[in-house]
Amino acid sequence: MTYQTKKLGEKLFSEDVVTYSLFNNHIPNDSKVFFKFAHNINVKMPRGWNYWCAPEVDTIEVKKDKTIVAYELKGVRRYKQTEENWPAFYDGIGQAIAYLNLPWVYESEAKRKRYNGGAFDFVYLVYPRKSADFPDDEKEILNLLPIGVLIAMPDGKFYEAKMASKNPLLNLEAKQHFLENLQTIEKPSINGKNFRKIEQVGKEYFDEK
Predict the structure, then answer these.
(1) Full-prediction pTM beyond 0.85?
(2) In Å, how far are 114, 162, 166 from 19, measured between CA atoms?
(3) pLDDT tens digit string along 174-205?
(4) Which of 90, 126, 134, 186 has the highest count of CB atoms within 10 angstroms of its CB?
(5) Residue 122 φ/ψ, nearest 5 degrees
């Protein structure tokens, strides 16, 4: 899908717009996707455990081949009501690193984590940029980390500036647990209110009917 580039300042390339663009233009249609996932404690199902994410995971993609990818997304913010504040390359690195050990499978009665390590195969940090340039000084720092980097453009295109390495904290038991219990995180799925808001803002930005 191709979009016309928005005049900078006309509409804000916010985190919700970046999220919608990622879903629409980068993630395959056959993937399962979840948005703004923090926990599943509201799902009334007897199980003795809950998922906990701190920080909240912006987007989770479960591919058809069962690969799980987590995305930390950044967007443009309004500064003093008039100026656009584009995120720096270091914004979100801490959150993305924390994703490597998420989600916790927290056992209620024992009050402990069931597994050491996380369920996500790969973690990506997504930045909005005015161009696809990825300066060498940023590369030198981010090449030290196992996370990948995607550049989100205002016209809906994405560029992989750095490929993610396999999550060094991946726990295969935690991953299998997550895959077997996706029904407990329906609230942040594309059928939930989180995505409805994201979709509304994204369609307005890209002038979709």
Answers:
(1) yes
(2) 31, 19, 23
(3) 999 999 999 999 888 888 888 999 999 999 99
(4) 126
(5) -140, 150
